[in-house]
């Protein structure tokens, strides 16, 4: 799902090909220029001959695009390598639009990875290269990214001004990509209004976003705006309505994304509503989910600060000093992450962005008329590319569904098993290792692996053995780490349970995750996907469908 989210952003913000085709030799570029992004390694291999030819011909523009369009295919480290290669060839081409887009794409990668410092640096460099660009879509895309950084840093007044310009521009364009950027700009200005506590403007603008996303049939933005609508109901004291509304938006986000930021915000608003309704047990459950996400992703946001203050005071009132200390440390960590991040990045915007924009304001006004005369040509080209995108996207959806069904059938027809005990390393092949094997066998038979928060040290303590010996035994016998071994036991157990016991098929994913010993739905979903290649929600729907 992470790859799906990155691909969605790539399709929205990719602009270079729209404005470079008119100068290209169609026979030379072939079908490559029709793509917004390479979506799998097979496409990279298919272009290998064209790549070798481009190297010989010193076709730097093709080489830069070839690497840039691979930025969603690998892990962060490899993606950075291909983007650096794209930047290298872009500079050799001496085309400022190409260089600017290479920096912009690199900034997008950092932004998705929540590295706002490096994202900002690359956006500002991109902005300098695009100062005199005739590619309005690319320029306003860069402006939108800088506005997002400003909103994140509480530079909200400036962010609102930039978002407003983006909203005006993208709304005036009649193509699929601009429609998505228009919705993204409306969503961005929501964040800016929220940062300065201008709830009147926030809720007014969010109702517009809700209406426009429904008109444009965009489920993603529609469901995100539902969460903000839930917050409006919370502020009005309509706590039950807040819970109901946020849960509707959250259901879509959990099924279709791994956006832990908005998942955390949703849990937070539901928890605060339950707290106001004096249903503290339910509230604490959601607050713990938020805290688990914070521990896993280290994402700091001012939104969560009041929650930690509530938790500190709650445990203080109960005399639970260890819990109180834990949440004090969590709040300090939250503040330290924010402080360390903002000290560098906020002044950077003032020095490297605002001054440059003031100088360019007059020049932009003078060139507006010339840009308008070309905009009609761009609309036609963008519309055609939008149609191509829709076709490609539809084909990919069909292929994805087929792949999921094949993996599901495999799980249904083949019993879930754990690798049998094999030969033990000579290093621990003694009485101790034999005792560990016997205890592990009993551990599996008694299904003690369903305990929550089970660690290597805890299991070693329960088995009355040394954690190093235990880890070595599992590595040798199972051929995997302790974490993978534990996850495999849990997931195989759940698969068999759902296949054999019909009553569990009516359980929610959260309930099944808890049954398997996971603290959060996200941890369970990730472990299930890593092992099977499909989401537990898909598996559950299919098995329910087959057994109606």
Structural account:
- Pfam families: HTH_18 (PF12833).
- GO terms for molecular function: DNA-binding transcription factor activity; sequence-specific DNA binding.
- Keywords: Coiled coil, DNA-binding, Membrane, Transmembrane, Transmembrane helix.
- It is a single chain.
- The chain has helices at residues 2-13, 16-20, 26-29, 41-46, 48-57, 60-68, 76-93, 96-112, 116-129, 136-152, 156-172, 176-195, 199-215, 219-235, 239-256, 260-276, 280-297, 305-317, 321-413, 431-445, 456-462, 467-478, 482-500, 509-515, 521-532, 536-546.
- Mean pLDDT is 79; it is low at 1-37, 349-366 and 419-428.
- The chain has 26 helices and no strands.
- The longest helix has 93 residues, at 321-413.
- The chain is 78% helix and 0% strand.
- It has a domain at 426-546: Orthogonal Bundle (Arc Repressor Mutant, subunit A), CATH 1.10.10.60.
- The chain is mainly α and 548 residues long.
């Amino acid at each position: 799902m992470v790859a799906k989210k990155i691909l969605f952003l790539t399709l929205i913000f990719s602009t270079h090909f729209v404005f470079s085709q008119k100068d290209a030799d169609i026979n030379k570029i072939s079908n490559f220029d029709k793509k917004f992004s390479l979506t799998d390694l097979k496409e990279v291999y298919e272009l290998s001959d064209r790549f070798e030819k481009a190297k010989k011909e010193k076709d730097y523009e093709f080489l830069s695009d070839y690497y840039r369009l691979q930025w969603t295919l690998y892990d962060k480290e490899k993606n950075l390598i291909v983007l650096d290669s794209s930047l290298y060839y872009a500079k050799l081409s001496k085309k400022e639009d190409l260089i600017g887009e290479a920096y912009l794409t690199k900034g997008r990668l950092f932004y998705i990875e929540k590295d706002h410092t490096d994202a900002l640096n690359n956006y500002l460099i991109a902005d300098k290269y695009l100062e005199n660009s005739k590619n309005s879509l690319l320029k306003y895309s860069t402006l939108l990214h800088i506005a997002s950084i400003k909103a994140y840093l509480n530079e909200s007044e400036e962010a609102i001004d930039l978002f407003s310009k983006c909203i005006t521009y993208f709304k005036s364009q009649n193509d699929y990509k601009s429609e998505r950027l228009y919705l993204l700009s409306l969503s961005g200005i929501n964040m800016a209004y929220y940062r300065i506590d201008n709830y009147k403007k926030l809720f007014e603008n969010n109702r517009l976003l809700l209406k426009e996303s429904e008109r444009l049939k965009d489920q993603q933005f529609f469901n995100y705006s539902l969460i903000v609508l839930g917050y409006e109901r919370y502020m009005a004291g309509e706590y039950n309505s807040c819970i109901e509304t946020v849960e509707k938006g959250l259901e879509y986000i959990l099924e279709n994304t791994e956006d832990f930021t908005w998942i955390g915000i949703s849990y937070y608003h539901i928890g605060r509503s339950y707290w106001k309704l004096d249903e503290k047990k339910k509230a604490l459950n959601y607050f713990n989910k938020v805290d688990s996400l914070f521990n896993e992703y280290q994402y700091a946001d001012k939104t969560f600060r009041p929650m930690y203050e509530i938790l500190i005071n709650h445990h203080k009132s109960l005399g639970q000093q260890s819990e109180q200390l834990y949440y004090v440390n969590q709040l300090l960590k939250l503040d330290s992450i924010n402080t360390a991040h903002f000290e560098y990045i906020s002044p950077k915007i003032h020095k490297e962005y605002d001054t440059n924009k003031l100088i360019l304001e007059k020049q932009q006004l003078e060139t507006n008329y010339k840009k308008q005369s070309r905009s009609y040509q761009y609309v036609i080209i963008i519309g055609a590319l939008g149609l191509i995108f829709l076709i490609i996207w539809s084909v990919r959806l069909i292929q994805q569904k087929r792949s999921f069904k094949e993996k599901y059938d495999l799980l249904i027809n083949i019993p879930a098993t754990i690798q049998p005990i094999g030969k033990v390393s000579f290093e621990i092949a003694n009485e101790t290792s034999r005792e560990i094997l016997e205890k592990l066998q009993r551990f599996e038979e008694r299904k003690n692996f369903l305990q929550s928060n089970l660690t290597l040290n805890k299991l070693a303590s329960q088995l009355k053995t040394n954690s190093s010996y235990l880890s070595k035994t599992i590595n040798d016998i199972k051929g995997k780490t302790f974490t993978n071994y534990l996850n495999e036991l849990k997931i195989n157990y759940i698969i068999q349970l759902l296949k054999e016991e019909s009553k569990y098929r009516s359980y929610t994913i959260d309930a099944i995750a808890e049954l398997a010993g996971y603290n959060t739905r996200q941890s369970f979903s990730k472990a299930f996907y890593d092992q099977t290649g499909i989401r537990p929600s898909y598996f559950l729907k299919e098995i329910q469908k087959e057994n109606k």
